[in-house]
Amino acid sequence: MKKSFLLLTIGISLVLSCQKTEPSIPIDNNTLDGPVDGLTTSEKLQFLRGDAAFNNQIFTKETGLGPLFVASSCGSCHAGDGKGHPFTTLTRFGQTDSSGNKFLATGAPQLQNCAIPGYEPEQVPAGASSSKFTPPANTGMGYLDAVSDDDIVAMADPNDANGDGISGVANWISLKSYLIPRTGSLVNNGRHIGRFGKKSGAYDLLQQTAGAYNQDMGITSTYEPFDTYSGVAIAPEVSNQTLSDVVFYLKTLKAPVQRNGGNTAVIKGKELFNQINCAKCHIPELKTGYSPIGALNKKTFYPYTDLLLHDMGSGLDDGYTEGNAKTYEWRTPALWGLGLSKNSQGGTYYLLHDGRATSIEQAILLHGGEATDSRNRYNGLSDAEKQHLIQFLESL
């Protein structure tokens, strides 16, 4: 009897000890990863397969890495599904206008700055323009993918008809041969609306994913079969099923959840955000159209973007472009998850397309072009008002 009691006491002590030392489950709104609510059982399984492929599969020379590459896994550029760091920032080069990229034969559009033994990493060729692209956060992209083309066009104002100085435009791009237009896709002179990438140069998440496997890791697929070193089509090094799983994973990552939304300073900051006209491009609320994924079908969400290209001024003109975008045009980045960016960036912000801004205020002050008025209005705020605005942005 005494022995049984002693064993029970030891067991309880061990359980309590483990409970004290094991890490607590993070609060949902403090993380970026995790699936959207409402997935079916089979969809949850596909999400998990995609999660494993994205975050756990590390390519080697033996499994197809390279010979030229940037990273050996998807997750290495998107820690915790968040924004990238200067060490993971990509270099795109070669295209200066809509006439096309003249440096495709010399490795464009992406610089592969690493190589397996026996090969030399790429260098940007003489005469080629280039730009740095910091990897974006992955979360909520399925919602952005499901916004209807009609809604995107409705937000555009290419000729500034309302006279507010803001003239967002869609980037009409040519579709890759393997892409299937989404339901309701609009066509303009044979081109479709791009919505992913810093300049909306990618049509959908399949193009974004297949391109990343090929350009970032040197991994071929049936969609992107050409080896980035030789330019020769080779056998697929990643299966269509794996690509499908990763695309589904990216589509069904949850949207970032706002924190401290009821805080007085955050509420005041949101009012100031609207007052200085930031919300004219960073539109708070959008809706999805039809999606074959029930959890994403006809949903309201809050990304703070219009998915359009805007003139951001000479200070952000990198002399490089994609599709029909101008060198000084950039797609409005979604602001949701902004306050969590530092978690994946080593504790410091690296904002704007190339990570040059190391604080939210610095990012605001580097806005030009169509955002000049909002920047000037920000400068006119009191120090306390500026702090409220930044607190609001950090709550997203």
Structural notes for this entry:
By secondary structure, the protein is mainly alpha-helical. Helices cover 29% and strands 7% of the residues. It contains eleven helices and ten strands. The protein has helices at residues 2-21, 41-55, 141-145, 149-155, 205-217, 240-252, 264-275, 341-344, 360-365, 372-379, 383-395, and strands at residues 68-69, 90-93, 114-115, 130-133, 171-173, 192-194, 286-287, 300-301, 309-311, 329-331. It has a two-stranded antiparallel sheet. A two-stranded antiparallel ribbon has the order 2-4. Strands 5-6 form a two-stranded antiparallel sheet. The longest helix has 20 residues, at 2-21.
Write a concise keyword list for the protein shown above:
disordered N terminus; Cytochrome Bc1 Complex, Chain D, domain 2; mainly alpha; 396 residues; globular; single chain; 29% helix; 11 helices
Strand content: 5-15%
Q: Please report the total strand number as a whole number.
A: 10
Largest sheet descriptor: 2 strands, antiparallel
End-to-end distance, in Å? 58 Å
Shape type: globular
Low-confidence stretches: 1-26
Average pLDDT for all residues = 92
Radius of gyration: 23 Å
Write a compact overview of the structure shown.
The protein is mainly alpha-helical.
Spell out the blueprint of helices and strands:
Elements (H helix, E strand, L loop, with lengths): L1 H20 L19 H15 L12 E2 L20 E4 L20 E2 L14 E4 L7 H5 L3 H7 L15 E3 L18 E3 L10 H13 L22 H13 L11 H12 L10 E2 L12 E2 L7 E3 L17 E3 L9 H4 L15 H6 L6 H8 L3 H13 L1
Antiparallel strand pairs: 1-3, 2-4, 5-6, 7-8, 9-10
Helix pairs in contact: 2-6, 5-6, 7-11
